Amino acid sequence: MGKAMTMGDRENDARAAMAADLALRFGEAVPVPPAGAGGLDPAALATLARIAGRSSNRRYLDRPVPPDLLRLLLAVALSAPSKSDLQQADIVVVSDPAKRAAIEGWLPENLWVKSAPVLLVFCANNARQRAIHDLRGHPYANDHLDPFFNATLDTGIVLSAFIIAAEAAGLATCPISAIRDEAEKVSDLLGLPPHVFPVAGLGVGWPDSKAPISPRLPLSLTVHENTHAGADVAAGIAAYDSYREGVRPFPKQRDVARFGEVHPYGWSEDKARQYASPQRPGFGAFVRARGFRLE
C-alpha cells in the first residue's frame, strides 16, 4: 500500500499546482510562499489557487443551479466593497424564457449563452442615490462624470466577486460584454429606469469540462513600482505574442477580408484589428440618454 498523504504533502502539491498555473498564465515563474510564518495557510492557498487557475467557461452541463445556491452567491457578491458605501450595483436574474430568448437573439456571436443554466445582467445603478436625495430633501450636487464612473466601477467589483464566489462553489462562468451592443434594447426589456444601465452579462452553470487557461501579459508590463514609466512595451508585447501563440494560438484571424492573413498572428495583431473598427460608438449617447452628464 502506498504511503498516505500528509497535510504537508497536500499543501506542497497545491503550491506546485498554483505555481504551474501562474507560470502558464504569465510565461514566467511566480513564487508561491510556503505555509507558516509569512506564508499561506491552507484556506488562503486554496482560494488563491482557484483564482490563479481559473478560466472563462462556455460549456455547461444540462443541470440547473439550485435557487438557494444562486441566492447565496448573489448575496456574497453584493458583500463586495463599494465606493463610499453608495452601493450602486444591481443584478438582474433573467429567468423569464421570453426575455432570455430575446437577449440570446441579440448575441449572435455568443451562441453558447443558450446553454448556460443561469443568465445574469449586472447593472450600474445611480438612480437609487438620486432618489435618496429626493427623499431626504438634499441637493444632488454631483451631476457629472464621477457618478457614472463610480456606479460602473461598483458593478465591476460585484461582477468579479460573483465570479470568484461561483467558481469557488464549483460553477463555471463567462462574462458577456457584448450585452452592451444592445444596451438600449436590454434596458427596455429589463425595465431599467433612468440612471441605470447594463454593464455586463454573465453565463453561469456547472462546467462539462475544464476550459484552458488564457495567458496574460507579462507582469513587467502590468505591475509597476512607484512610477509607471520604464516598461519596454514593444519588446514586452512581442515576447507575449510569441509566448501566447505557442500556448494558446487564436483559432482564426479577425477581419481577413479587410486586413488579409498574416503569419504569425499574435495577440497584438488581433487586438489592433478588433479596435480598428468602431466598438459601440453609440454607447456614450445611450448613457447620456439614461440621464448621465459625462463632463
The global form is globular
Helix content: 40-55%
**CATH superfamily annotation of the largest domain:** NADH Oxidase
Instruction: Catalogue the unreliable spans.
Output: none
Strand content: 5-15%
Describe the main β-sheet briefly. Answer: 4 strands, antiparallel
What's the CATH topology name of the largest domain? NADH Oxidase
**Whole-Å distance between the termini?**
71 Å
| Class based on secondary structure composition and strand pairing | alpha+beta
Mean pLDDT: 93
Number of E-type strands: 4
Q: What is the N-to-C succession of helices and strands?
A: HHHEHEHHEHEHHHHH
Question: Which structural traits does this protein have?
Answer:
295 residues, alpha+beta, NADH Oxidase, 3 domains, 12 helices, 4 strands, globular
Q: What would your notes on this structure say?
A:
- This protein has about 300 residues and is an alpha+beta fold.
- The mean pLDDT is about 95.
- It has three domains: about 15-50, no CATH class; about 65-210, 3-Layer(aba) Sandwich (NADH Oxidase), CATH 3.40.109.10; about 215-295, no CATH class.
- The radius of gyration is 22 Å and the shape is globular.
- About 45% of the residues lie in helices and about 10% in strands.
- It contains twelve helices and four strands; from the N terminus they run αααβαβααβαβααααα.
Would you kindly provide a brief summary of this structure?
With 295 residues, this protein is an alpha+beta fold.
